[in-house]
Amino acid sequence: MEGVTPLFTEAEFKTAKSKDVLPLQCLQCKRTFHLSKTRVQQALNPNRIAAGQKANCCSRSCAKTHQNPPVAVQCLQCQKTFKKNVSQIKKSPNHFCGHPCAAKYHNAHKTKGTRVSKLEVWLQGQLPALYPGMKFDFNQTDVINAELDIYIPSLRLAFELNGIFHYEPIFGPEKLSTIQTNDARKFQACIEYGIELCLIDTSKMVNFKEKGALEFLEIIQNVIELHVGVEPTSYLLTKEVPSHEG
After folding, report:
1. Which residue among 24, 42, 82, 136 is least crowded, i.e. fewest CB within 10 A of its CB?
2. Is position 104 within any domain?
3. 3-state secondary structure string, the chain?
């Protein structure tokens, strides 16, 4: 039976009444679904192309996927290969395997709204030059399963540069609550992993200027130099300390 995948015999088909339902297998998800004998007969008609397509799959979504199967694409950030639907490719020609990769790429290639991210990019150039023998990880997520703006493995020391979105409801109170909850979880995770996290309030930097950026670089330098060769001490450079009870 061209155009359909029957799960019934020819004898069962012949003895079935027009309203009796017959089992078919979805070409896409391989699940069993049922259609009436009349619908199956319509699907077998070579002049009823649309009916044949409907009989191939259990749903519209499966039919669309079967007609336009996912295409292998490469993540623009980490180069990982994964599959993406044709409709998704049309909507978003840039391919990312997940939100972390998308965020990293967009933060590094922003042309608008880059107030704090410009500061981060600038610091990523300054710190390794000032401390050539020290390893810096920028925007890594594999240390505490959450992104850290700056992390120094040898000192188990991290820095977060918190802009105005961490303190004021620019995008509404619900968004602010989500951001602050994530901040608190990140703070707690650092405690559990034995990492000192210094939170630096950068909300006063409305537009990036190197003169203003030097102030934050000096803060980071002072903390680093206090930790070199001595036991780390816990303190924060921020408006508020996130709650980390529990």
Report:
1. 82
2. no
3. CCCCCECCCHHHHHHCCCCCEEEEECCCCCCEEEEEHHHHHHHHCCCCHHHHHHHHCCCHHHHHHHHCCCEEEECCCCCCEEEECHHHHHHCCCCCCCHHHHHHHHHHCCCCCCHHHHHHHHHHHHHHHHCCCCCCEEEECCCCCCCEEEEEHHHCEEEEEECHHHCCCCCCHHHHHHHHHHHHHHHHHHHHCCCEEEEEECCCCCCCCHHHHHHHHHHHHHHHHHHCCCCCCCCCECCCCCCCCC
